Amino acid sequence: MAKPVYVLNGPNLNMLGLREPSIYGAETLAGVQRRTEARAELLGLEVDFRQSNVEGELVTWIQQAREAASGIILNAGAYTHTSLALLDALNAAELPAIEVHLSNVFRRESFRHHSFISLGARGVICGFGPKVYELALEAMAEILGQQPATRA
Ligand code: DQA
After folding, report:
1. Closest ligand 1 atom to 24 CA
2. Alpha-carbon distances, residue 29 vs 41, 74, 114 (angstroms)
3. Would 149 disulfide with which of 12, 26, 44, 130, CB 3.0-4.6 Å?
4. Is there a contact between 49 and 33 (Cβ–Cβ < 8 Å)?
5. Which atom of ligand 1 approaches the CA of 81 most closely?
6. 19: DSSP letter
7. What integer is the mean pLDDT of 106-118?
8. Annotated active-site residue in 6, 79, 101, 133
9. Catalytic residue among 6, 24, 79, 133, which?
10. What CA–CA distance (Å, rounded) separates 108 from 105?
11. What local confidence, expressed as pLDDT, does residue 149 receive?
């Protein structure tokens, strides 16, 4: 059985749907999870989708990923712009990692233009709303050499 791709979400992403819909859209995190899992199935990938508001919990999950996951897709929320600990964890995991953001962080406040996560990521996808998770899975499937699942 192939290892899952960890899809990790940081602080305030549990508030999707309610939180600043003009920036983040109307879809809830449960909706994002459903579309991510559906896309993963088409790509022949397993996903383990999680959210935490706690930086240390995200660090622990990334540490666990080293053994338990095949890759990491990470929306670290505001920790993107502050967390050296998440960068260290990603580098220690030695797995392909893709950074995602729902919003186009480069069209926003200048403090969102810098990401610590990017130094540990193969690539960054931002600005396309919930679709960024699906695009990251497409890229991850290619990195992992996964064939799309054939429909029955
Ligand atoms: C975010 C962008 C971050 O700057 C912000 O702090 C978030 C969400 C995004 O998905 O657009 O919480 O990561």
Report:
1. 11
2. 18, 14, 24
3. 44
4. yes
5. 4
6. S
7. 97
8. 101
9. 24
10. 5
11. 60
Is the distance from the beta carbon of residue 101 to the nearest atom of ligand 1 less than 6 Å?
A: yes
- Rounded Cα distance between 14 and 12, Å, is 5
Domains of the chain: which residue ranges? Answer: 5-51+73-145
Q: Which atom of ligand 1 is nearest to the CA of 23?
A: 11
Cβ contacts of 4 within 8 Å, gap of 6 or more: 45, 46, 47, 48, 68, 69, 70
Measured from the CB, is residue 83 less than 6 Å from ligand 1?
no
The tokens 């919003």 sit on which residue?
Answer: 103
Side chain identity, residue 89 = A
Convert the pLDDT of each residue in 74-91 to its tens digit: 999 999 999 999 999 999
Mean of all residue pLDDT scores within the chain: 95
Longest C-alpha distance within the chain, in Å? 48
- Tokens coding 31: 């909706």
CATH of 5-51+73-145, one of 3.10.560.10, 3.30.830.10, 3.40.50.9100, 3.90.950.20: 3.40.50.9100
